[in-house]
Task: inverse folding
């Protein structure tokens, strides 16, 4: 009897070791392209294409980053990306929280029907709107402008939906107390509702920032002047001329990827919560 | 004005509704009209050159071999990459929620990281990973004694190569949803099954899978919808080649619309995408209703 219990313990230990080995191996395999990207970006020219492959730069150099920033205007593309992503995040947070809160907690005629119409947008792929939107922005003189890049992201149905779900959970007594104190509706939204749904607001902000930063098709369509390119467009463009310069291209990829990875790592908790809520309630 | 003050609701929603209406719903309706015209470079220069052509664009679509190639590639991509991504993400979700796993949070972050990266940037990285001589993959396979393959240059391998990259990029997203789904299965169900003497495999088949079914359908449909919109990978890695082997519906739409300025024709391509996405959404809605009835 004791021997059998011992064997069971060994089998359990073996299974745990195997479990950790499989998970760790998959995690490492998943990270390899990203680790190689970072390593190659620090290698002297030509080292990333050596056979057999290297994973450690010797010696490490920041030369490619310097070339990118000084000679190839990637610094400008970086600034463009920061500007566009930050502005879209700020504006869309304001518009989506105002609308989401009102759809949840303010009564007005046609409210639920209007929300239903908005939800229909979730079924329509964005590409359908792109061609006419381009023509519309052309009439408005917004092609090849920062505002033109931002326009599709100014408000989002998914964002309004997430805020509405969260706002439905604000205790009515909280809102009533503020109304009795004579607070106006805007004041209630700003000082009571927004703080009450803070995690959702952060989640939405992260989604919006990462989504705008990573977006490719729309900026590619709208921007024609290289000085206004966002990073993904600039990087795809760079590939055309520098496809042979592996280390330089990897430095460009790092500059593009690193900010979103850092934002994600810092605010991971909110991002994950948002995906799970979106999945469960969507 | 006093009415507005008494009822602020419409003013709260107005900015967002206007933005979405003007920059999404109006263009979608305009797209329907645009797809019935021969809008091209001449119309772009002078709107009087625009002609209404009825369903001609859609007729042309049916007879356009390149469109069928793009549609076929997109469907192959969805039907292969989708199940692969789901299988990998479900497998990893099961391992991540396995009892006794240490550092689960760290592993989860590592496996999820590709999801947040910029698609264009990692597509550039994978272009080099697939390089027929220096690429990491080629060299790793060579270490196993396998012949080098020109992954992105060979029509037989280009689409599979993009599929592998897309699965790598996306499986972490589905994995997170599965982890949440698995954690919401009540522990007592497993306890009951254990008391009844059910093996681990039996527990997976008769407890986990049925409880996970709604999550599975959801993940399958959003994965399919996302993969239908394949664009940046072929744009960056292959430009749709070689010999149109990786041309996708959205890439074709982009080229027709914004390279050749055949915007009427390109819009009809966009509507094909719309129909596919709509059909997938209806599948989701229907199976959710079926699942709801089964529970009730």
Result:
């Amino acid at each position: 009897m004791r021997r059998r219990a011992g064997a069971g313990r060994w089998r359990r230990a073996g299974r745990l070791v195997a479990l950790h080995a499989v998970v760790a191996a998959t995690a490492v395999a998943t990270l390899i392209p990203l680790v190689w990207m970072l390593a190659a970006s620090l290698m002297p020219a030509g080292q990333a294409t050596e056979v057999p492959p290297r994973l450690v730069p010797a010696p490490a150099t920041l030369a490619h980053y310097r070339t990118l920033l000084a000679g190839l205007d990637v610094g400008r593309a970086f600034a463009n990306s920061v500007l566009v992503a930050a502005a879209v995040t700020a504006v869309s947070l304001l518009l989506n929280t105002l609308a989401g809160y009102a759809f949840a907690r303010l009564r007005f005629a046609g409210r639920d029907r209007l929300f239903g119409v908005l939800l229909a947008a979730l079924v329509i792929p964005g590409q359908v709107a792109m061609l006419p939107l381009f023509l519309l922005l052309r009439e408005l003189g917004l092609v090849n402008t920062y505002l033109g890049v931002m326009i599709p992201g100014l408000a989002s149905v998914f964002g309004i939906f997430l805020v509405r779900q969260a706002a439905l959970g604000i205790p009515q007594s909280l809102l009533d107390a503020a109304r009795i104190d004579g607070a106006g509706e805007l004041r209630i939204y700003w000082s009571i509702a927004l703080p009450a749904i803070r995690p959702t607001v952060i989640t939405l902000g992260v989604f919006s920032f990462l989504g705008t930063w990573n977006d490719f098709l729309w900026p590619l369509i709208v921007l024609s002047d290289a000085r206004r390119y966002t990073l993904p467009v600039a990087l795809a463009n760079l590939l055309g001329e520098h496809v042979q310069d592996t280390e330089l291209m990897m430095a460009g990829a790092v500059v593009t990827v690193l900010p979103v990875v850092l934002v994600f790592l810092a605010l991971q908790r909110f991002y994950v919560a948002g995906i799970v809520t979106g999945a469960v309630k969507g | 004005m006093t009415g507005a003050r008494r009822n602020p609701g419409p003013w709260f929603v107005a900015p967002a509704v206007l933005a979405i209406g003007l920059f999404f719903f109006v263009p979608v309706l305009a797209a329907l009209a645009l797809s019935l015209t021969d809008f091209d470079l001449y119309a772009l220069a002078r709107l009087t050159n625009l002609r209404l052509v009825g369903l001609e664009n859609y007729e042309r679509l049916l007879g356009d071999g390149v469109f069928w190639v793009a549609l076929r590639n997109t469907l192959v991509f969805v039907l292969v990459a989708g199940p692969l991504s789901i299988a990998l993400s479900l497998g990893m979700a099961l391992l991540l929620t396995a009892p006794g796993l240490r550092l689960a949070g760290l592993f989860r972050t590592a496996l999820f990281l590709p999801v947040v990266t910029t698609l264009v940037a990692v597509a550039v990285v994978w272009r080099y990973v697939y390089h027929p001589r220096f690429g990491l993959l080629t060299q790793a396979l060579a270490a196993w004694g396998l012949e080098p393959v020109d992954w992105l240059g060979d029509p037989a391998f280009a689409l599979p190569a993009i599929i592998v990259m897309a699965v790598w990029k996306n499986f972490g997203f589905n994995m997170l949803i599965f982890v949440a789904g698995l954690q919401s299965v009540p522990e007592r169900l497993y306890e009951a099954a254990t008391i009844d003497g059910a093996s681990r495999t039996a527990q997976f088949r008769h407890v986990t899978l049925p409880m996970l079914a709604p999550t599975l359908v959801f993940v399958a449909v959003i994965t399919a919808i996302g993969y239908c919109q394949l664009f940046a990978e072929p744009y960056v890695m292959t430009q749709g080649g070689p010999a149109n082997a990786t041309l996708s519906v959205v890439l074709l739409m982009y080229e027709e619309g914004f390279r050749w300025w055949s915007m009427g024709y390109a819009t009809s391509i966009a509507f094909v995408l719309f129909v596919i996405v709509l059909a997938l959404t209806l599948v989701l809605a229907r199976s959710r209703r079926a699942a709801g009835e089964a529970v009730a």
About this structure: The mean pLDDT of chain B is 91. Residues 263-295 of chain B form the longest helix (33 residues). Chain B has one domain: 67-295.
